[in-house]
Structure formats: structure tokens, C-alpha cells
């Protein structure tokens, strides 16, 4: 935009005004377009699907195609459309509060996701730190090694853990052969197996943002701290960790959010007693064929995840403004 | 330059249209069946015989199929849902009535099966049986022998009696994660009507299942195949064909694992997989031709010999491997067949009670 303005200003004064307005309009249009694209993306791939799901959550289940009523259309004209709208109700949300099942499932999912996130952070941080401090020549190789597992199907990788963790599996055979244990450990079909599965599957999502924030860190700060007599551990907590905080937050969100709705890992590795919201949603959708209630479960899950993040962002923005 | 590019794109667009146009002249049928459920040479033979190209796609759960069908516009011409799912889907208007005049081979079908499938599809107007089987007990013969002192399992008692199942706890028990298959079995064991929708009866079934719940390692509808075959578990309540698959895998693996399957003497649930044509199928004529071809005795026998399930085609039995036909766990004798029961689909309200009960049994909540 500024370029266009400069060119226009150097032209004769009589035409400069017209030209510059046109150029400005054009540049502004391009600028707008660049901003609009992500919004259009969000509109089509987030907002509209969400509105559809929200609408289904206000409908009633029916034995029909699609299996809910009313289906909004304009076949009955505008008045017919409003008639259909009046049939929508919040009954399904009320239903969710009447059975403790849903509340328990949400809570269990949040707890499992939170524990997994902390474990992933504990495992991922040293890895990212090691990578960031490694010689620059081998960093691309290390980065590659973190990304490499993505080239195999997620399902196959989770399935492979069954072979490792089962009572006659690789891990137990190894531990038995080395004499560390005398009885095979029962890990498969327990919460431990779920944690192992989630930590393993989501580790790259934690390592990558951590690595990118640790790599950018200026290590002369640590040297300065050392010179001033600061022991390494407190130098870590006073300098390294606070500077890597954006990476920590990004990594935790990237692990926590998908872990809450995780279905495959608890289904394959977890025991049947594991009650998570993903399974509850599956039951509502597939076993009960109740698309409206399962939509309501999904809407609540979405709110549960996005509202705290939005509040957090707002609080952060406010804190930043206060710093200024 | 631009003009040239425009020309190029216009001609290529035209060519694509043309290609699509000529493609439409090829006769096609889109089949959506269970995975591992056909001898694939049948598909090639069908194409050779009729010139109809088969686009064969597979699913592994009724629920996935149902969701595609209920959403509409699935594009499939022949689908194979199980009986109780079929019944509900017919009610929802998913299927079209079959034009029986295009299905002359229907005379080969077996009345013993057709009478029962009529429970889901009155008059068998919408569907033709593909395969059928039972819900019974698959077990690791050696491990059960060690734990119980006998390898003869012929009753639900081995599963529903807490004392007996407790002995099998450590070697592992898996159960189908499917209330519509397990709750009726519990009702049958208790001497109640397996079709009962009364909340009292369902509560009794729940009680019976909760008593044995501590000894069940996992509820899952497919993992037991591998778990049985690998010798990871010693007992599974599952579908007949899946257990036979486990048995074959165990034989192939040569690890000394032997798998048995029992149809309990109290009676077991019969299930049916039915071929049907969606109401919005794009190639109805080809679909009918495909279904008619599948009813040829030697064709469906070939499929049974491969997938190890019984089929509902009486005339095919002369072409079925003797070992399979004589296996009472695949083709039970007339006496046992009388004891087999079918379960009608639940109405939405009962379904909710059943699912909720099941969640309580499985998760304890």
C-alpha cells in the first residue's frame, strides 16, 4: 500500500489524487482478501458445521432419513419454516443433566486428558531441550526422527502397543527374561495403557512447539546467570522455563484438546470400565441412534474446551495491556 | 497465451465430460458388504458372466453402515445389514422393495431361514439372506481344560455361573460389546423370554451380568478374534463366524492354540445378514442381477466354503464342503435349530434402557 502511494505521489499532481485512490482501493482490497480467506475457511469448515450440529441438538430423534425431526427446509414456505423452527427445543440438554453418566464421562475425560498432558510435558520437555541444545548440524535429523512416526498409520501404531503391553507381550517377556518381575504385569486394558498410548501418540505435538520456543532462546542469558553465581536448576526455573512458556502452553493445548475427545486409544488399549466422553458420544450416536442427544453432547464438549481457552486468552490480553 | 490456456482447459473439460459419458455406459454395481465376507473370485466371475463391473467396498460394523444409509445418498446399490438393523432401516424408509420377478433364483432359498428373517422383514419383501450364524461361546480348548477340568462346553452355565467364570478370570474372558446380543442370552439363561422388553426382566439380566462382570476382562466386538487365536484369552462370547476365523488363524499360526465353538444347549441367538437395495440406489437393475447371481447354489456355496458361515440357500448345501455342512456349530441339527431364537429390534425407548443398562454393566456407572 505504501509503495503504491509513493508511486502515485511522484506522478503529476492533477492525476495523483485519482490514481492514488484507485491504487489504495486495490491494495486495500488485496489486504482485505488476505484477511478474509481464513474467515471464509472458518465460516465454511467450522461455523456452518457447528450450526448444523447445534440445530440437530435441538431436534427430536425419529425413525426416518435423516433420523431426527424437524428437518429444516423451505418446502412449506416461510411460515412453514418458522413452524419447523418452533419445534426445536432444549430437551436434550435437560436430559444430559438428568443422568450422572454424562457428567461423570466429561469429568473422567478431562482428568485423563489432564494427566496425559502433564505426563507428555514431562517426557517431551527434556526431548525438546536436548534437541534445542544439540549441535545445529544434527538438529534437522532429530526433528525428522520426531516427525517420522507420523508416516505410519496412527491406528497401526496404537495397535502395535497391544502387542507390546499384553500379558504375553514383548514388554512382559523382556521383564520376565531379565528377572525383574516374576509375574506378568497387567498393563493392557488399564488406565496406565491409556496414558502410555496418549503420551506416545501426542508426543510430537508437545515436542515441536517446545522445540521451536527453546531453539529461539538466547543461551547467553544462562551463561550470564552462571557468571552471577546462579545454580543451574534455578537458572532453568528463572530463565529457561519462563521463556519457553509459550511453547509449553501451545504444546499442552495441542495435546489436551484432542485427548479429551479421544476414542481410539481408550477403545483399543483401555479396559471396558473406562468411561470417556468419546465412547459416550459413540453410544448415543451409534447404539441409541440418537443424533440429537449425541449432538448435544458434542456441543457441550466444544463449549467445555473453547470457553476456558477464550477466557484465558482474554485474561492474557488484559495482562499484556496492563504491562504497557 | 491466455487464449491457448483457455482452449486447453475447455478441450480437457470437454474430454472429461466425454469420458464420464462413455463411462456411464459401462454397467456398474456398488456393493457394500462386511469385511472378509466373500470369496473374491465370485466378484470376478460375476463380472465375466454379466459384464457388470463391481465396485466392492467393506465395513466392519452395522452402526457404520446404518449411519451412511440414514444420512442418505450413500451411492451403494447392494448393502448387507444384520436383521435387527435391517428392520429399523426398513421402517425409516431406507430400502426399496425387491422386484421378485427379476430374482428367479429365489426358489433356492431355505424356508427355515426365510421364516425367521420374516421377523425383521415381513414377507421378505426388502431383503435376501446372505449368511447367518449364532451367538455362542468360543474357547481355548487346552486352557479351559486346565482351568475347569473339562473341555466340554455346552451350556451358558460356564459363562453365567460366577463360580465357573471366576476360574477363567486369569486366563481371560472377552465379551461382545453388543447389548442386543448379550442381554437376550442372559434372559434365556434365566429362563425368561429373550425378547422381553420389560424393565424388570432387563434388570434381572443386568443383575446376572453384574455377578460375572468382575471376571470379564474386556467388552469388545472384534478384538476377541485375535485374542483367541493368539491364545491371549481362554473364553469369548462372540459370533460364530468370528470364532471360526480365530480357529483358522490359530491353525495357520501353528502355536498349538486350539479353538472350539459351542452353541449352548439352552438356546442361542440366531443372526442374519441380509442383502438389500437402498431406496436411492443408482443402479437398481444391476443390483438385482447381483443379488440373483448370489442366490445361485454353487456361487453362495463357494462363499460359505470360504467365509465358513452357513447361508440361507437350501439348494447350495450339495455344493458345501462336507466338513462344514456336518459341523454342528455351523449347521446345527434340526433339534438345535428349534432352540435357536431371534431377537426383534428394540423400540427407541427400550433401546435407551438397554444401552443405559449396558453402560452400567460395562463401566459400573
Structure description:
The complex is a heterodimer of chains A (324) and B (365). Chain A is built from 14 helices and 2 strands; from the N terminus they run ααββαααααααααααα. Chain A is globular, with a radius of gyration of 27 Å. Chain A has helices at residues 2-10, 13-57, 77-86, 91-98, 100-133, 139-147, 154-165, 170-177, 191-215, 220-227, 232-260, 264-269, 277-287, 291-323; strands spanning 60-61, 68-69. Chain A has a two-stranded antiparallel ribbon with strand order 1-2. The model of chain B is unreliable at 13-22 (pLDDT under 50). Chain B has 2 domains: 2-132 and 273-334, Periplasmic binding protein-like II (D-Maltodextrin-Binding Protein, domain 2), CATH 3.40.190.10; 134-270 and 343-363, Periplasmic binding protein-like II (D-Maltodextrin-Binding Protein, domain 2). In chain B, the strands form 2 sheets. In chain B, strands 4, 5, 6, 7, 8 and 9 form a 6-stranded mixed β-sheet that branches. In chain B, strands 2-1-3 form a 3-stranded parallel β-sheet. The interface between A and B is medium-sized, with 29 and 37 residues. Chain B: Pfam families: SBP_bac_8. Chain B: It is found in: Periplasm. Chain B: InterPro entries: SBP (IPR006059), Sperm_putr-bd (IPR001188).
Coarse shape of chain A: globular
Order of helices and strands of chain B: HEHEHEHHEHHHEHHEHEHEEHHHHH
Helix fraction of chain B, binned, reads 40-55%
Q: Secondary-structure element order of chain A, as H and E?
A: HHEEHHHHHHHHHHHH
- The count of DSSP E runs of length 2 or more, i.e. the number of strands of chain B, is 9
- CATH architecture field of the largest domain in chain B: 3-Layer(aba) Sandwich
- Morphology call of chain B: globular
CATH topology name of the largest domain in chain B: D-Maltodextrin-Binding Protein, domain 2
Helical element count of chain B? 17
Question: Which pair has the most extensive contact?
Answer: A-B, 29 and 37 residues
The CATH topology of the largest domain in chain A corresponds to: MetI-like fold
Largest sheet of chain A: 2 strands, antiparallel
Mean pLDDT of chain B: 90
Structural class of chain A: mainly alpha
Query: Per CATH, which architecture of the largest domain in chain A?
Result: Orthogonal Bundle
CATH class of the largest domain in chain A: Mainly Alpha
Low-pLDDT parts of chain B are: 13-22
Overall mean pLDDT of chain A: 87
Identify the CATH class of the largest domain in chain B: Alpha Beta
Query: Largest sheet of chain B, described in full?
Result: 6 strands, mixed
